[in-house]
Specification:
Largest sheet: none
Distance between the termini: 51 Å
Number of helices: 1
Shape: elongated
Strand content: under 5%
Structural class: mainly alpha
Number of strands: 0
Radius of gyration: 17 Å
Length: 48
């Protein structure tokens, strides 16, 4: 069981690292449209 948990956690961390390396934009949807990834891809509200 410990070995299964270790492998599951390891795979999750590897996939997470790969996903964040290619991240273009991250929006929290917490009231504004600023990009939290640091790439400056801020959103703008149209027709709302």
């Amino acid at each position: 069981m410990k070995l299964f948990l270790f492998y599951s956690l390891s795979i999750s961390l590897i996939i997470s690292a790969i996903t964040h390396a290619e991240l273009v934009g991250y929006w929290k949807f917490d009231g504004d449209f600023t990009d939290s990834s640091g790439n400056g891809n801020d959103g703008e509200l149209f027709g709302g």
